[in-house]
Design a protein that fits this description.
Strand 1 and strand 2 form a beta hairpin. The protein is globular and about 75 Å long. Helices cover about 70% and strands about 5% of the residues. It has a three-stranded antiparallel sheet with strand order 2-1-3.
Length: about 300
């Protein structure tokens, strides 16, 4: 039954967490973001046509052919919207389900930034609808299968599942670095809305507030580190992310050196060298041991100077 399926799923995830499961998780995230993006784009289109139809005199004044075309377009958009939102909910339920017992792949260096940015993005979207800053009424959203309160609860579960198992604070650090969606006060806003509308249990709200506090600490630490380190030598920067490399590796076919997490994230969806498109696999990466030691020594020197 379901229990046996869950056990088998956990077994496969543990055995394949470095290959199959990471690729599965990457595809799940890609699809979830795409589906939500498409839904968010279509909702205003639907609302605009529905509002136009409510103004009976203005609507009837339009040529019959134009009305028919807009009505046909509305029906098609509504059908696609329902399908996209249904699949988005399925993907989020899968993330909720799988993160309950399987957390290591979510928190590995090549995945944690992606999962953090996705969760933040979803959180911002749901809160905007729940707070009323988006113009479409909630009851209109729900008839298309978009129930922000339900989605927010599932999203909170994913946040909490990962937070409680994150011994290295990698999730909090990744959220703090997310410049697209995260902002100061995001988790405070979540707590306020969740309590006001009874969307989450008090225990879950408290856990999310704890995560928010941890993220704030990580953000402050990140800013302190940036100030302490100053300008990073170009040879220590990842050429794609322009961030300080932690585990530099050389790509054997192009000779380019970048951070291992960056190239591993790329290889999850594209098994080629991004600089020359030749075949590339994780086993082919060459550790840059001397460069890694140089980076560590430089960081130690900068910290020493800061203490003087």
């Amino acid at each position: 039954g379901v229990h046996a399926h869950r056990q088998e799923w956990c077994r496969v995830a543990v055995e394949q967490e470095g290959s199959f499961y990471l690729k599965f998780l990457n595809m799940l995230i890609n699809d979830a973001i795409y589906l939500l993006d498409e839904s968010v784009k279509k909702l205003p289109e639907v609302r605009e046509t529905l509002q136009a139809m409510l103004n009976t005199s203005s609507w009837q004044a339009q040529p019959a052919r134009e009305r028919e075309e807009r009505e046909a377009s509305l029906r098609q958009t509504e059908q696609i919207l329902r399908s996209d939102l249904y699949l988005a909910r399925v993907h989020l339920r899968m993330l909720q389900y799988t993160s309950t017992e399987i957390t290591t792949p979510f928190l590995c260096p090549e995945m944690v930034d992606r999962i953090a940015s996705m969760l933040d993005y979803f959180l911002v979207q749901f809160l905007e609808y729940l707070s009323g800053s988006r113009t479409m009424e909630l009851h209109d959203l729900e008839k298309y299968g978009f129930v922000p309160s339900e989605l927010l609860s599932r999203l909170a579960d994913v946040f909490i599942n990962l937070f409680l198992k994150d011994k290295e604070n990698s999730l909090a650090a990744a959220i703090a670095k997310d410049g697209r969606s995260y902002h100061d006060g995001l988790f405070d806003e979540l707590a306020r809305i969740a309590r006001e509308y009874f969307l989450l249990t008090e225990d879950k709200v408290v856990q999310m507030e704890r995560l928010g506090a941890r993220v704030a600490e990580a953000k402050a630490s990140e800013m302190d580190d940036e100030e302490m380190l100053g300008d990073v030598p170009d040879e220590f920067l990842d050429p794609i992310q322009y961030t300080l490399m932690k585990d530099p590796v050389k790509l054997p076919t192009s000779g380019v050196t970048l951070d291992k997490a960056t190239i591993m994230r790329h290889l999850l969806s594209d098994p080629t060298d991004p600089f020359n498109r030749k075949p590339l696999s994780p086993e082919m990466l060459v550790p840059e041991v001397e460069l890694k030691a140089s980076i560590s020594n430089w960081i130690a020197e900068q910290k020493g100077k800061a203490k003087q």
